[in-house]
Amino acid sequence: MINNINDKTILNNGVKMPWLGFGVYLIEDGAAVNNAVRKALETGYRSIDTAAVYKNEIGVGKAINESGIAREDIFLTTKVWNDNLRKKRVSEAFEESLKKLNTDYVDLYLIHWPVNNFYLDAWNEMEKIYKSGRAKAIGVSNFMIPHLQNILNVCEVKPAVNQIEFHPLLVQPELLKFCKEQHIQLEAWSPLIQGQVTEINAISELAKKYGKSAAQIVLRWNLQHGVVTIPKSSKPDRIVENSELFDFELSNLDMELLNSLNEGKRIGPDPYNFDF
């Protein structure tokens, strides 16, 4: 059982990653993201997830540097965007992210999307970055089983993490099983279905049963699946609420009930068919 906000999973290269992190997608750079990240760190989060395309790496880096928390105690993730895969400038993009984040290294660097004809070359560059020691771990985001198999067929360094859309309406059990078998840590983005968790009756009923919010029920479900989760909010009370997951546990029956909500429904793009 995952008992507190400081509990970590051990990635396939031995690096420790917090089970619960804080996402900053769509939080505007400057004061908004600075305040959100600082609140998250004050609350006890020690994992921050950003990306080049979020355009808030500068604010994230500033918040971390001003937090008074040692850099080595914070797990920092960023991602390389698709246009830099196509332009074959993964290493240059990495340098740009480091500069914006004002750090010497990141804990996890991800390929953001599996851009056809480019992600295998990009993985070769990711391995070079990893071997330089300036990314403690490397991984992918939005990769399905065929994409992962293509990398596993040629890689020297196996992806440590696959960050995907994962929530009760999109469980993807085959992908979850595959990643566990391959010792690739699954990580959930948009775990709260962009706020739709409050509109699903079964989740609301469980919230009443456990005396928790709908968001807390779903985030706990994520963790009990062995999936790292990174809820995002810019509201201080929600940032705190989303961290209060460690004083209860969902029963096996209630886990199955949430699993049964699976519709294969995406709120984000299809990793097999996107045009950006």
In short, what is this structure?
The protein has 276 residues and is an alpha/beta fold. It has helices at residues 31-43, 57-66, 82-86, 90-101, 119-132, 145-154, 173-181, 201-210, 214-224, 236-241, 252-259; strands at residues 8-10, 16-18, 22-23, 47-49, 75-80, 108-111, 138-141, 161-165, 185-189, 228-229.
Question: Main β-sheet: number of strands, strand sense, barrel status?
Answer: 8 strands, parallel
Fourth-tier CATH superfamily name: NADP-dependent oxidoreductase domain
Q: Helical region count?
A: 11
- Percentage beta strand: 5-15%
Using only C-alpha atoms, the radius of gyration works out to: 18 Å
Give a topology summary:
Elements: E1 8-10, E2 16-18, E3 22-23, H1 31-43, E4 47-49, H2 57-66, E5 75-80, H3 82-86, H4 90-101, E6 108-111, H5 119-132, E7 138-141, H6 145-154, E8 161-165, H7 173-181, E9 185-189, H8 201-210, H9 214-224, E10 228-229, H10 236-241, H11 252-259
Parallel strand pairs: 3-4, 4-5, 5-6, 6-7, 7-8, 8-9, 9-10
Antiparallel strand pairs: 1-2
Protein name: Aldo/keto reductase
Domain NADP-dependent oxidoreductase: 31-263
Keywords: NADP, Oxidoreductase
